[in-house]
Structure formats: C-alpha cells, structure tokens
Amino acid sequence: MKNLLSAVEFAIWLIAQKRQQIVSGGTRKRMKKQSEKLKENTSKLKQAMDELQASEDKYRQLVENADCIIIRRNVKGEIVFFNEFAQKFFGYSEQEIIGKNVIGTIVPETDSYGRNLAKMIRDIGRRPELYATNENENICKDGRRVWIAWTNKPVRDKQGNITEILCVGHDITNRKEMENELRLLATILQNSPDPTTVQDFEGNIISWNYGAEKVYGYSEEEALKMSISKIIPEHKREEIAALIESLTKGEDTVFLDTQRLAKNGRLLDISLTMMMVKDEAGRPFAIATNESDITEHRQLEREVLSITERERKLIGREMHDSMGQSLTGIAVKSKGLALKLEDKSSGDSKEALAISKLANKAIVQMRSLTKMLLPIDIEAGGLPSALKNLAANTEKALGVKCRFNCSTPVSIDNHVELRQLYRIAQEAITNAVKHGKAKAIQINMDEGYVLSVKNDGKDFPKTPPRKRKGLGLKIMEYRANMIGASLDIRRGDKGGTVVTCVFTNKENQSR
Known about the structure:
Beta-Lactamase; five-stranded antiparallel beta sheet; 15 helices; alpha+beta; about 50% helix; about 20% strand; 15 strands
C-alpha cells in the first residue's frame, strides 16, 4: 500500500513539472494551485487508508482474542476463517482446519440422539434465516463431544448472493449436562412411589407426581386445580403454617411426622420433608414437599402402645392383688408380733411395730402406683375424674405438688381418646419430675378440648420436633397422632415447660 502511494505522489509531481514547462503567467499560478489541492487530497487519501488499515488490524486482533468461537465458512461448509479461541477449543491449528469441511471435523454426521447434523449444515447454507440461533452437538479433535450455542449470520455479495456464513459459538456443555441430570431427576421424582408436590405461596398445587396420585387418590389433572389445603386435616393446618413460617425465615428444609387426608376421607400418617424452591437470583417462589406414607408403621406403633397398655393393666392388677396381699400380710403379722413381744421385750416390740408401719406405708404407695397404672375411673368417672386422681396419686407416689383444674366440664365418650389423653398427661408429669426436676405441676382441662400440663422445672429447650430425642416426647407425639390431636411442647411464660394437647371428641362430632 505504501509503494502504491509513493507511485501516485511521483506521478502527480511529474505532471506538475510538465505543466510548469508548458504554461506560464496566470495559467502557471492556476495550475500550481490545482497541484497543491491535488497534493492535499492525496494526503487525506493516504491518511484515510492508514486509518482503514489500523481499523482492520484492530478488528482482526479483536476477533482473534475473543473468548468465543468465531468461524467463517462458505456455503459448501468449508472453513475459511478459524479464530484462535476456536483453535484452542477444538484442538485444530489454523493450517489443519482451513479449507476443511465442518462435517467430519468439528461437526459429527449425527449427534448422540441420532439427529442428522450434516443435513442441518447444508440447510444453514441454503436457508440461514431459519438457523439464526441454534444449539447442536460438536466434536473436538480428540473425539470429545461438546455442546455449542451458535449464532449464524449470512455474508452476501453485491448481488445479494450468500457467499459465507459467519458463526459465533459459546460452549454450553456444562449447562446441557445439568439439564440432562435435572431431566433424569425429574423423571425419577415424577415416577417415584412417594408423593412429591410443589405448591405456590397461596397453596395452589403446581406439581403432582405419580406417588401423590396413588397415595392421595387425586389425579394430576384434579390436583392442579385445587389447593394443598384439601389434603391437610383441619387440626394440622396451624402446624403446616408454622413450618412455612420457618422456611420463610431462612430454614432451608424442615422435617415432620404429620397427617394427610386422602380423597376417600381416610386419615393417613405421613413423614414430611418440606423445602423452599428458589429461582436463579435466590428468590423463593414455591414450596416443594417429599412425603412418605407411614400409616402402616404408625399402626404397628399403636399396636405396641396397645400392648403396653395391656401390660400396664396386668402389672397394676398383679401389684394390687399379689403384692398388695403380701404387704398387707406383713403389716398384720408385724403388728401381731409387736403385741406378743410387748410384755417380753419392749425393744423387739418397737422394731416389729416399725416394720408394720413401713409395710402400711408401702401399701399406700403401692395403691397410688396401681391407680396410675390402672386408672379404673377413666371409663366410670370420665377424664376429669381420672386426671384429678392422677394429680392426687402423683403427690403421694412422687412427692411433688400436683393440682388439677377443670374450668368447664368436658364430656368425652371415646374410650380410646380417654386412655391416650390420660397417658399423655401421665407422661408429661413423669418427664417433668424425672428430667425437669419440677416441684409443682398443674394439670388443666379447658373449654374447647384443650389439655395442658405445666410445671416449674427446667426450661424446655428450643429444639425443632425432628431433633427431639427423648422417648417420652416421641410417645406423647405418637399418642396425639393416634387420636388426631395436635401436640405442642414449649417453654412456659414464666419458665418451666408446658405440654398442650388440642383434641376433638370424635364421638360427639359424629352425632
């Protein structure tokens, strides 16, 4: 380009010299002015060509150093430009790839799914407007398969004919692998025998899998038109609301054993895992649940509790009949022995009388324990009467202050409920004395079917239900679930622990 400019300048100078020899006077002045104008224009032309050259160098440098694949190929698919990034990505040098067809080098004949990529490349050359953007599998020199998102732009000549295709690509292999994993996971979850659901914050169901259909009886079509509240029993709705509140406050996942309602009205025991679903920006937009039907497991637990109840009764009767008679015999004989020894040995007589008194004391304690094991007045006098006697027997047997208060008479006809509520109160008392070191206990029966046991012992720790390890706590939860009640255990307003059980009288409800 510089040689060309020098030749032009020389020609202009030569012409100017010739003209100076031919013309003179005013004509020479006019020619000189035109010559200077020509030189000025030539200088501007040279400057413009230099700027164009610099612009082309800058553009080429930009293309070569771009962090994306940039390729130009002709309509036959032969590569005419392959930038440095493309060379490093695919593993081909410029000498190896220029002039080669993309098919068989960086594009396989067919992809892993059997799609004909050779036909696609030919179509792009003929109808590039249909492939302005596309994603397809590519292949590197070492045989490694990769996924590229392409932007294709036709390059045309002055007549409008397509001469080349400019292709700009970005590696999306990782995204594709994640999509495939998510697709596989979605398939597994969709066909899982365990219910998996997704709901928005208004409770509308937006996903309902095969397991949910089988366990709850609603088809996917039915479920997507209803609220999640339709499968939540009335007595468990506050519990679910508390779980959602925990999620919104930052807890990632919550676990709970709860209950659900099937389409046929059957009450199911469910082990629930609930988690927040977030978008790419980290904003929560839905709640996902994974659930397991543990109804049979709970039935086995109820059978164990039933067996335990029968064993309690058996032990209570044995203590009352056998041990009671033995202790009574010891007390009577000891007192008789004391009378016989009264004249012979005052010391021995006193010892025999002391044994008699200890035996009588053991009889009183044994009867209190028997009544706790065998609350014979539950069915005869109702729950308030049984709880009143439980409070009295607790004072005698455990040596703590225990009071019962019933603000409104509560009539419960369901004997299963009666026994379970009694045992919940009894377990709460045992825990208060054994673990809480309580000195005073208050049992309350309030209007609205609420049973509460308060104590002044150690403060109950703030532990989520799923992390509580105490067997007594688990047994109370089992008993509450057994009768469809809700159980809450927390620190009291003035310290200590409050166990609250809210229940319904199913016998009265069915009338």
